[in-house]
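Write out the 3D structure for:
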Amino acid sequence: MARAERRQREARTAGTLLGLNLFWRTFGLLALLLAGGIFAWMQTLRALELEPRAVQQAQETAALVNLTRTALLQSDPVNRVATVKSVAASSAVRVLPREPGDRWEPYEVDRFTRRVGEELRAALGPDAIVASSVNAQPGLWVGFTIERDRYWMQSPPAREAALSRTTWFVWIGIALAATLVGSIAIASLINRPLKQLSFAASRIREGDLDSRLDENTLTSEIREVNRGFNRMARELARVEEDRTVMLAGISHDLRTPLARLRLETEMSVADEEARCNMASDIDQLDGIIDKFMDYARPGDAAMRAVGVAGLVEREAARFRDPMQVRIQSRVTPDVRVLADESELARVFQNLFENARRYGRNTYSGVAEITVTSVKTGPWAIVSVRDNGPGVAPEKLAQLTTPFFRGDAARTAATGAGLGLAIVEKAMQRMGGSLELANAADGGLVVHLRLKRAPG
């Protein structure tokens, strides 16, 4: 149960990491697209809003100028100055006589002001002057003529104001917030079936062939993918079941004649040496069958806290032989790992057997094995080293391939060629990992990385 929960948790974590990467990529693209659309619409609205605003500003200003001009035309030239003063006193519009020495700045400096200037000249005549300041007094100033008298009129500043920056920032902020929320929602919907597929594939990889995906989803493409995945999972489950049954049958059918051969050898072969050789061959065949069964063992493992030092000593006692194998354990008693005890014992059995066969010293002919341990964070690393000839660096990665042997020295020995492949599969079932390397002063080193038990 603990093994299944751990496997599901790790698969969910792997799927989540993959989903996050794809999620943020989708989110970024959607956010960029929507933000670009908002910016484009903002520019479009500003362009569309500029024309009517400029025309409205020009029309209002022209109406004020015409109204002022009419009022001044109704009064005689002698009383026009008094009329000008009364207009300035009774409204926000200022009307001043235009003097030859007045200093003024052009009003038309951008697209909006140029459009206002064009509309004003179209309404007031080509001789109208539009200024942004007169004698250092800012505002929208319009110069016009009544008969031979020239005047300045200043419009209220508020009439030419566009939308304030605060207003723009508020609306842009709201639009960006909506963009982020929408991007997150859309990216989540897009990536949800992919995350489910990733999680289910991780469970299949870990050996859980009961994983299934929803075949009734609304999206036709996802529905077809899920149906194909479920068919694949069912086929894999059937193949796995057939393989287990086949291997069990092969093991039973082969061991029965081997047992008869062993009995016949003991009873019928008179020559002692021939009888021993035949018995050795039968034992080797029986051992090869065991290796095949170990390699095809199902993926479930009962995880619990295991003391590594005691386990190593127990398994080493079965192999110690002064003439062939010398095993020295330097594993500290406090090293405890989360593992299946039977699986971990099988790991050390295969490593010791591998060193006994292929890791013998060139001079003494004895396989000297050293087992050490080190703690690093949440992990415990147990290293098994022999003092043999080692392996060519380019072949290290292939040692865990079933039926592969490293070099001529190693292929000289007999065996199924599954020892390190079995070790790698067992480590994967227990949530650990295997690393192979050559020692600096000779020999092969196998590093077993396992999670430390709490406490």
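The chain has four domains: 2-45+165-227, 77-160, 236-295, 304-451.
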